[in-house]
Give the backbone structure.
Amino acid sequence: MTMPRRLLLSATLAAPLVGRARAQAWPERPISVVVPFLAGGSTDIAARIMAERMAPKLGPQARLIVENRAGAGGSVGAEWVRHRPADGYTLLLASASALGTNPAALPQTTPYDPVEDFTQVALVGGGPIVLVVPAASPFKTAQDLLAAVKAAPGRHTWATSGAGGIGHLTGEYLKMRAGGLKAEHVPYRGGSAVMEALAKSEVDYSLEVLASVAAHLRDGLSRGLAVSSLKRHPLFPEIPTLDEVGLPGFEITTWNILCGPRGLPPEIAATLSQAVGAALTEPSTAQRLAQAGVDPANPGTPAETRAFLTAELAKFRAIVKDAGLTLGR
């Protein structure tokens, strides 16, 4: 049946009004923030802090509920969110592994385009990777360690919390930048297992996110030799950067990005982005995030967040290509 021209015109003109009305009514029910990891990690803690602080900024009745959907380095939760309705009621607090290193190094486990299949909302925060050794290690500086690995190709071992993760790609990049080092990669199931292996001196070194190593560094169970950011971290100002110890411009950091399914209405994305920015500027929120090992980001727009993710993905794909990694293929 053909719709009469007058009715068709009325429906066409009304469509934008309906969309705006729906956006203005949002949120009418709880918003689910999916964390693609088990509870207790830095991403989970950051999600719970942000959910608590963002809610009042979205309206007096707004509620954000954290939902853990772990698996495959964050890819399971990301894939689940990708298939949710783009109505603003299901969001993803993604990590560098879920939307960065996994798509770059393990495309067979990430059946999504991390940029095009999601609506980027805001960068929440991030942090450096730490080059760390056991407390009993003979290596006192990053230069000592790298020189030893170079002098004995293949005889040293290094651990990460999983093949294809942020620590793994950082380690591969380190080996390339340090002159083509050769060492045996030992992947573990999570950061806590890596730190236990270091405490027992089962491996020679590791590259792990600051949130995983902070407690061990404070307790003297492990020793940090360098961080992967361009500036020293305020929690451990005594640890130099890799840039300082002879690898100019070396910079790889982990991060958390809030996003939604592809097609999230621009009005909702903008409102969420503003709420993230307002929460991050609160001193108490920033302090709580820092304690969890997440350095709060500067407030930004959805467009800026998309540009950031695009650049990070390109960087990780370049590392995979240059290192010749063929994980699981």
